Each structure stands twice: as structure tokens, then as C-alpha cells.
Amino acid sequence: MKTLVIAEHDKGVLKPETNKTITAAVKLGFDVDLLLAGENLAAMSEQAASIAGVSNVLIADDAAYANQLAENLADLVLSLADNYSHIVASATTTGKNFMPRVAALLDVAQISEIIDVIDADTFKRPIYAGNAIATVKSLDSKKVITVRASSFDVAPEQAPVAVTSVAGKGSVGLSEFVSEEQTESERPELTAAPVVISGGRGMQNGENFALLNGIADKLGAAIGASRAAVDAGFVPNDMQVGQTGKIVAPDLYIAVGISGAIQHLAGMKDSKVIVAINKDPDAPIFQVADYGLVADLFDVLPELESAL
Amino acid sequence: MKVLVPIKRVIDYNVKARVKADKTDVDLANVKMAMNPFCEIAIEEAIRLKEAGTATEVVAVTIGNKSSQEQLRTALALGADKAIHIETEEKLESLHVAKLLSKIVEQESPELVILGKQSIDSDNNQTGQMLAALTGRGQGTFASKVDVQAGTVNVTREVDGGLQTVALKLPAIVTTDLRLNEPRYASLPNIMKAKRKPLDVIAADSLGVDLAPRVQLVEVNEPEKRSGGIVVEDVATLVEKLKTEAKVI
């Protein structure tokens, strides 16, 4: 019994989701190999080898994996699958893309977005937008699992382990990368930030999101948004926190002008401390907030910025 | 070009799911059901492709008990040309669904299959990717733009850092994200017309797919409740509490 974790990385940087996914993988109770697939992996492989719990780092350096295309990545993982009882990746947009492909090619079920490991076969996962938590047991001999990284701690460091190369398999010829538009930001990523401040429909327009900047600067926070704010066109979709956006669990989550629809709560209710600022005292967000402030956000935000 | 759109009947997205007292599952008795929101977006995209002259035929398919024909009729009212109902009383997993759909793909040979990225009940986000694997096709998941060209389809995908565009060889599989389009409502005349459109029924166990469970549902629980906190008077008190009580800033 042995576990393969597929690393999540972008632009030469190992993503924090990878460390947290290793924590989940270690809980399965077997040796963990970490696979890095892409190009120019040397610097990242050192970082990967130092994550506590990793026994071996495998690197597959091949242009076919540069953009993490699901068809090619699944083909690579399939070629390694014989050696492993458990295949694990983060439930990011990359993991969600290629992992079900791996599962189907192996003719096994996938257990999606686990939030807890009970034993090597049994896991907890949210269903119905987090309104219920299912305990599920995999009956397949091989398990394919994606992990909700925000539910697990970052793995500590260790003395670096060995790094081994594995052969790339090239492109399977079904898909090609065309282009990407990355959101440029100096701020920490939503899913990794210790503090997140999010705006909702109450922000009224995209320009008003600038009111969050000063506070975010002072707290080292990432800026998020509710689906209502995204649907209204205030901000781009990659800022969306919620069931259909990003799942976050920072130390401090500040919800500004957000009513607290079920689908938003599904994305942030595991935050350690929640602050809600809303002028409607009956807004459902106050039912999950540790600290509520019933006030007009346009009065409060400048005040908060100067008080920090 | 033929477009196949698999859809799913799920709990209405406005209804809060409740766990059964015996913890065996979520209680769906007498709960309002509807077409999964991501599937509505998939139907809409297929119909727009037909209106643009790119698609020639839109086929909707669902897997479920007799009640799921309601959602097929909705798809027909929205503009699908015909519907296929794969009938079963079993609660199926994504892998089973993908295998059954792959049989329909064999029969119908669609150039494009458009599915919702996930259903709002099981929240698995698997079926489209699995269908792509089983049919040996490329996959454009979490699409916010679909652009069909000769022999290829360019799909712009919602990814964690922004947007990624990939070119897939046709035939291909696409799964929809929220911003792909805004679905229309069915008009009354179209709802009436939909009653006369063809709807074929196929028994799931006639398709030669092993439907034995791969995952056992052990238990379903309510999530841990967050206890509501306190309302503070003003910004100064809030900052004070965050510093000294919560110790997070």
C-alpha cells in the first residue's frame, strides 16, 4: 500500500494546497510519493522534497505537462498507477479537471473533496453545498481522492528526500493550450491568505471595492467577493468565495455587505474568526459571525482602515 | 453538428437540504425538485449553438426514475429537439452515469457533449471528465466561453488563477461554469409544443453497464453548527475584540 500525490504548482512555485494535501495523504497511513509534472522543475523539486511526510519526489519533465492539460496529465498518472493503492490531489481547478479522468481510466470511483480521513477507505466529504457531511467508504481496490486543502494543516518541513525522474509520455493529442489570462495581484492568494476580506452586493459597484484595498494592505489580506458581486459584474469570477467559487478557511474572514446566502457560507464558514459588516440586522451572515457590526459599510470601512 | 446534453434532476437550489433523523441520507421526500442549475446552462449553450447555425440537433438525456422526465420536458420546452430517458430506480454514482452516457454517445455520435460541471446535490464534479475519459475525447471543463471552429472547439476555462483557453479536437466534451451564459425561461407555447416532441425511454440495465456500487454511504450528518457571536457597537470595539479576544490581528 502506497500513496501517490500529484503536486499543484504554477509558474515555478509549489502551491500551498500541495502541503496541505500531503497532510491528508499522510493520514492514510502509507508511504507518500509526490509527483511533479511540468517543465523546469529543479527548484520546485527541492521544495517538494522538504515537505514532511514525502518519501520520494518523482519529476516528469515534459512540455506536454507545462499547462497541466487534463488529457496528458491523466495519461502520465495512469502510467504510474500500478505502484499505488491511493492516488491523491488537491481539489483545485487542476485536480478537479484531471483526477476524474484518471479514475475513469482506472475504472474506479473518485471520492471528491474530502475534508477528513477516517481510515484508508473511509472519508468525510461535504454534499448539498455543505448542508450535510457524508461519511463514505470506497469499495474499489484503488482509491482516487481529491482533497479540500482548506480542511487540512500545512505539513511541516523535513530534511530533503530523494528526487527521481520518471519518463514523460508526451501529448495524447486531444487538446492544446491556447492562452491564459492570469489575474495580476500583489496580494496573497485567496486560498492561502491568513486574512480574507470579501465584498458583496452591498458594495454597489466595482469601484467601491477599492475601499477594501487599504484594509487588505494593513492586514496582509486577500480580497474576495460573493457570487452576487461577481454576477453583478463588480469583480472577476476568480475572486468568488463560495460553493461554486473558492473555499477558504483563513484565521480571519471579514464579510462586507454580504447577506450570507447558503452558497457563500459554504465557501467560508470554516474560517476561524468571522466578522460581518452589514446594515441589515437580519442578514443571515450574522448567524455565523463571531463579531457583527450593524452599520453602513461606507461609514465603517474608512474608519476601520484608520483604526488598524 | 449534433450536440448531446446530459441533465440531472436535483433538489431545487433554493431549498435547504435536511439530513434524515436516522442519518442514512438527506431527506428528499416532498422536496421541490428542479433541473440542476449547471445543466440549465448546458442546455442554453446547446440551443445557442443551434440558433447560431453551428448545431443542427440538440438531444437531451437524463438518468433517473420516471419523475426525471419532467426535466427532460423542460429541456424540450427550452429548445432541445429530442430527449432520451435512461430509466432506473437506483441511486447511481458518477462512474455509472458516465458509463451509461458513453453508451448513448456511441448510439448518437454527437460532435459535442455539454454537461454541467457539477450537480448541486452530490457536488462531485466528475461526470463530464469521466465521460471524456471513457469516450477517448478531450475535455474543456468549467467553461466560460465555447467557440466551435472547423474540427476543433476552443474552450475558455475558469481556473483558480484566472482564465485558461484550450483547443480541443472534435468530437469533445465540455462542462459548464456559471458565467457561460444566462439561461432563458421556457415560454408557454414552447412548453405545450414540448409535449409532442420525441422522448425515448431506455432501461438502464439494458445497456450492459455494471451498476454495482463502488462507494458505500456510511452515514450523513449535519455539519457542525457555528454558534452565533456577538454584535459590537462600533469599529473601535471591533478592532479591540479582534486584538485582545480573538487575537487574529
From TrEMBL, chain A:
It holds the Pfam family ETF. The keyword DNA damage does not apply. SUPFAM superfamilies: Adenine nucleotide alpha hydrolases-like (SSF52402), DHS-like NAD/FAD-binding domain (SSF52467). CDD domains: ETF_alpha. Residues 3-181 form the Electron transfer flavoprotein alpha/beta-subunit N-terminal domain. It comes from the Bacteria. Keywords: Electron transport, FAD, Flavoprotein, Transport. InterPro entries: DHS-like_NAD/FAD-binding_dom, ETF_a/b_N, ETF_a/FixB, ETF_alpha_N, ETF_asu_C, ETF_asu_C_CS, Rossmann-like_a/b/a_fold. Belongs to the ETF alpha-subunit/FixB family. This is FAD-binding protein.
